[in-house]
Amino acid sequence: MTELTDRPAQPTAARPTTQPAVRPDATTRPGTGSAAWTRRYSGAVMNTFGTPQRVLVRGEGCYVWDADGNRYLDLLAGIAVNLLGHAHPTLTGAISAQLATLGHISNFFASTPQIALAERLLEIAGAPEGSRVFLCNSGTEANEGAFKLARRTGRQGMVAAEGAFHGRTMGALALTHKPAYREPFEPLPGNVVHVPYGDVEALRAAVDGGTAAVVLEPIQGEAGAVVPPAGYLAAARDITTAAGALLVLDEVQTGMGRTGAWFAHQHPLIGGASGEAGAAAGPVRPDVVTLAKGLGGGIPVGAVIAYGEAATLLRPGDHGTTFGGNPVAAAAALATLHVVERDGLRENAAAVGRHIVDALTAPAHPLLAGVRGEGLLLGVLLRAPVAVAVRDTLLAEHGIIVNAAAADVLRLAPPLILTAEQADHFVEALTIALDTVTALGEGS
Ligand code: PLP
Fold this sequence. Notes:
Blueprint (H helix, E strand, L loop, with lengths): L33 H11 L11 E5 L2 E4 L4 E4 L2 H4 L8 H13 L10 H14 L6 E5 L2 H13 L5 E5 L8 H6 L3 H4 L9 E4 L4 H7 L4 E6 L15 H12 L2 E5 L17 H4 L3 H7 L6 E4 L10 E5 L20 H16 L2 H17 L6 E7 L2 E6 L4 H12 L1 E2 L1 E4 L2 E4 L7 H20 L5
Parallel strand pairs: 3-13, 5-6, 5-7, 7-8, 8-9
Antiparallel strand pairs: 1-2, 2-3, 4-10, 9-10, 11-12, 12-15, 14-15
Helix pairs in contact: 3-12, 4-12, 13-15, 14-15
The structure holds pyridoxal-5'-phosphate.
């Protein structure tokens, strides 16, 4: 076993200066380690997620600790959420200060963080005059909002992509593709068709005058960082414009700097048209962008950005939420956006992501088939269906958290503060883990 000791945390300016007043009892009382907590989990928490891999009690920077005191390098960040890592002092400070000032109000009233966040998102989006933001609590809720907004066009048809993941509530689930997630809950909201992701002609054939919206992820996250061919989003824009349909981009996982741009569709390799003329034309302009995950840096916040005229589709009384725009959540999002900008974390995501791709591709381990994705949303492709075995080996023997997005794909979505040294540590550990899995006969 390596890397499971409580070694010193990474050197980072982002380290908290104070310890929490009340510490979890997990590491201080006998019988309260991971095994005991896992039993209690099974006895109390509904079994929707399976058995947890570990019970975690603390986090700092890119590291988390379990209830037995073991430390892990977190390359998943709560599934693409903790952009600033764990317990970032600017974020915890902003949350505490806001909670001590004004914690929650109803949407009969407005708060200054809510207004400032909506303005900042419009600015980041480069949205035209008339654009507006609806704040909510999660990715699935943001997509529900987009779905309802699209139905307000008076059309009913929705076109989504095979492999897509848009959430688990009924409307978002109708847009999600995986049959195992959808079928037990049918009937779902109707008039949704799924077309092969990245196939321009299939999209063109599916969109007509009855189409309210085309909903696409700029990179498919849950599917394992699947990048569409160059020019795909630009073609989707042309197709929807010609049919008078909306283009909804689900940036729940790709947004907020993870790919190196604020939004993946602003990244020239993702949102640009193919060819030189396309590059000159600049990125696509969607009608709606949905956000969540990284937006609050770990506090639940979601958003629907409606561009231009699309912002007029939902009218008073059409949609609502108790917690959306909550002052504490909005303050957390503002603090997260501030640190991403101030500390150059988009640039860091691009540079460290490139560093990982370079390190994993030259020379590649025989079990590695390639790396895809952009910035710090990466899919590591394996030549055999051993992703779960590799994930478990990295966790147990190297103290590294990654995700098995598919049988043969590992997903990395680490904090944007990840350093090149931490990335190197992962690359070395992955090589050893791949050897281990090969030696166990699972890689053949
Ligand atoms: N959309 C995308 C692209 C996602 O990756 C996810 C979650 O993984 C969602 C929507 C749903 O977000 P949430 O889990 O916050 O409801």
